[in-house]
Predict the 3D structure of the following.
Amino acid sequence: MNKFFIAVLYILALFPFCQPVTAKPRPDARLFTFDAVIQLAKEQSPKYRYAAVLFENRQWQYRTYQSNYLPQLNLSGVLPEYNKTIEPRLTDSGSLIFINTHNASSSMQLSLGQEIWPTGGYISINSQMKRIDDFQADINRTRYSSVPATITLTQPIFGFNNRAWDRKISPLRYEEAKRDYREEMEDIAKEATSYFFNLLISQIGYEIAEKNVANNDTLYKIAERRYEAGKIPENELLQMELTLLNSVQNLDQAALDVEANTLKLKVFLGITEDYPIELVPPTEIPQFEVDEEVALAQAHKNRQQIISFKRELLEADMRMAKAKGETGFTANLFASFGLTQQALEVQEAYNNPSQQQRVRMGFNIPVMDWGRTDAIVGTAKANQTLVKANVELQRINFDQEIYLHVKRFKVLRKQMAGAKRADEIAEKRYSITKARYLDGNLSLLDLNIATEERDKASRSYISALRNFWLAYYTLRSLTLYDFERNEPLVIPSEG
């Protein structure tokens, strides 16, 4: 074999390794950057739609809570109630007789009511009009009864005030919902990161497998010529053939991995169109410093779990107050004052109305309950103590998680820089090793080792990128803070 022919084969063998790691996209493929995938996940993925609907549900719940403390105007009535039957009637002498009744009645009532949340009472102003048509009388008689205005107050005394506690807890629940929605958006971004890099790793694995098949095929052809020239033993030729066969099998498996991970990413993003996807690796890494104390302070300021701690403690206090308020002495006051009149004509039913007053005080005192009160109050107190202990333990774990993750984030950023440098070194070492193997200065074993190290370094670099971005979005989720812009995370659609 002359030197010119060897030089040509040498150039052909080196040519595939002059290409970049990312192969040219297919003509029908759509390019997706990392940022585009994250944006799609936050705008159209099934998980986003679920989170958006859940948050909307909590918004309506909060509006329902707010409406409980606003005046409520209601109009009710019966138009009409017709009655023709035989009814029992008590006579003046005390005997019971049955009489025929034939009448129709109609009524209309307008009421304006308002919760009194500091005391748990309810006050309302009512206006009512009734009409009765008596068809049983000799002459058809119609009568009207009016209540132009009545003020009614219902007030529990020494009881459990549900509205006062609801006013403390419901705003916390809504604030939890807003912060939980923000955390969910970052969790969606984190999950999208996993699917993105799973597909990217499989695509790069496929590109590596393609290059390995092309190079192993070239090396095998060179080995055949060397074997024919008597420059290498048959064992080395067989080893090259085996390496080529293995690389072809690896290419088939890599193609299957690309197809599977493409489908998973499309399902997660809610993409229904059938087209190939080519991913663009994120080359720009955000540069910012994260201090453990700052991250911890922002997490305490922004996270949903901190509000959850307050709510859990308040709910434990509420259950304690309810246990005491519903088992001891309780009383209820009902009072109403208004005007009323009755007449044969509508206009006369509002002339010179008479006063009407009603007052009722009811009470309940447990005399003997065989320890039921003590058991209910004791259970509530034990639960209150348990909640306080659990919240305290969760606070400790909360702080530890933030602190350790910031440390891990810093380590992963350093590891990513090291993995990138290792990838560059492994690629360069492979090129040198291959050149020396073609010159006959190194064995096939050395070439195989350099190939494995190059492939491993390429995958390790992409894995390091994956771990960094997962840690990045985990940090945002744990603190609800954007360290690049130095501002809390706010989602416009949550308002």
Observations:
- The CA atoms of residues 9 and 456 lie 27 Å apart.
